[in-house]
Write a structure and sequence with these properties.
- By secondary structure, the chain is an all-alpha fold.
- Helices cover about 70% and strands about 0% of the residues.
- The chain has 13 helices and no strands.
- Helix 3 runs antiparallel to helix 4, helix 4 packs antiparallel against helix 11 and helix 9 runs parallel beside helix 12.
Length: about 375
């Protein structure tokens, strides 16, 4: 895709700051996500009511996905053109990327809908799909943490092209195309999941290990010990273990009842953990912590709920409904708190780095030192 980006960057004015391009792309992703959420909150619109999401929404999704993809690909080029590269821009770019990765996936789930007994995929497949995508993102930045080089495999470009093509196909033909077998009785969604798992297990992750091993042989690793090298993986993996425990022990089957809210919380929590744990090279005085309040809460919540409310079978209907409402309220509060905390972290770090490097976040002008 580089020839296309090289042409697009030439029409971008030199007075536009790279972070403006980065943030604009992220805003377009958010707009598309909230638009799809309005029409399809519980991921059923494409299955039970195929015409509920207008065709123009799918075409708009293709447009915003391409724009976000393009802006994310040229912001680094713009930084080099304007000689404004900085740790602030790098953290801003990768921080928003870590959040956008989950939003891309959550938006795409609306295309084929959740399982309704005839079509769609289960919410547990959605959770697995999202986890694999986020794991791939983690591997790339864990590799950079150890080697100093961010290696993005061609699968990243392929995934963006597939998203855009899928939205265009859905807008032109309709969601019914996703509900028909295409190969040996398999649906397109089945093929995508199989390809995703295959690429992750046999291409992406092995490539990451190989690049780290090659850096070790060349003695160019950034960390001298195995402990330091593996430390950034602890919090993300712990987070996913605790989230999975919550899904399994949930007394009210929280993932099935509130899939969009739960998966949104997963994406926000992952972005916060990866940004704070896998980017210590931005500051030599930053220490990697193994735990955070979110993971502590997640560790306690399933246990408390399983003790209070499980098993629900055989209990009065009113009591079961009360337990379910309590769990949904806890999820809503947790999702709100995680989102607010992540936004607070981003704003604070951005302001601190802006003052430290004497630059503005969204402008190429220098700050006036007092």
């Amino acid at each position: 895709m580089q020839p296309l980006w090289d042409k697009i960057i030439k029409i971008v004015p030199l007075w536009i700051a790279p972070n403006v391009l980065t943030f604009s792309g992220f805003v377009m992703i958010l707009v598309n996500y909230f638009l799809l959420s309005f029409y399809d909150w519980d991921y059923t619109a494409s299955g039970s009511s195929p015409g509920l999401v207008p065709s123009w929404v799918w075409l708009f999704s293709a447009f915003t996905t391409f724009c976000a993809y393009a802006l994310d690909s040229i912001d680094g080029k713009q930084a080099r053109r304007t000689q404004s590269s900085s740790p602030l821009g790098e953290l801003f770019d990768h921080g928003l990327d870590s959040w956008a990765t989950s939003i891309f996936v959550l938006s795409f789930f609306s295309v084929f809908s959740r399982d309704n007994g005839r079509t769609g995929v289960s919410v547990y497949t959605m959770y697995l799909y999202l986890s694999i995508v986020l794991f791939n993102f983690l591997c790339s930045h864990w590799e950079k943490y150890n080697t100093g080089v961010l290696f993005l495999p061609w699968g990243y470009d392929l995934s963006q092209v597939v998203l855009i093509a899928a939205y265009l196909l859905t807008g032109a033909v309709g969601v019914e195309v996703w509900h028909k077998p295409v190969l040996f009785g398999y649906y397109i969604t089945d093929v995508l999941v199989i390809l995703l798992i295959g690429f992750s297990l046999f291409l992406s992750f092995p490539q990451t290990l190989y690049n780290i091993h090659r850096a070790h042989l060349k003695k160019t690793l950034k960390n001298g010990s195995l402990y330091e090298g593996l430390l950034p993986l602890v919090s993300p993996l712990l987070l996913f273990i605790l989230l999975t425990v919550w899904v399994v022990l949930s007394p009210g089957n929280i993932l099935a009842r509130q899939p969009r809210l739960f998966l949104w919380m997963v994406g926000v929590a992952f972005s916060n953990v990866v940004t704070t744990k896998c980017n210590p090279h931005f500051s030599t005085c930053q220490h990697l912590e193994l735990l955070m309040p979110l993971t502590t809460y997640l560790a306690a919540h399933p246990v408390l709920n399983s003790h209070r409310c499980s098993p629900l079978q055989g209990r009065p209907l009113r009591e079961r409904a009360r337990c379910t409402r309590r769990e949904e309220a806890a999820l809503a509060l947790l999702a709100l708190a995680a989102t607010a905390a992540h936004l607070h972290y981003g704003v604070c770090v951005g302001r601190q780095l802006s003052e430290h490097f004497n630059i503005y976040i969204f402008s190429l002008k220098k700050r006036v030192q007092e």
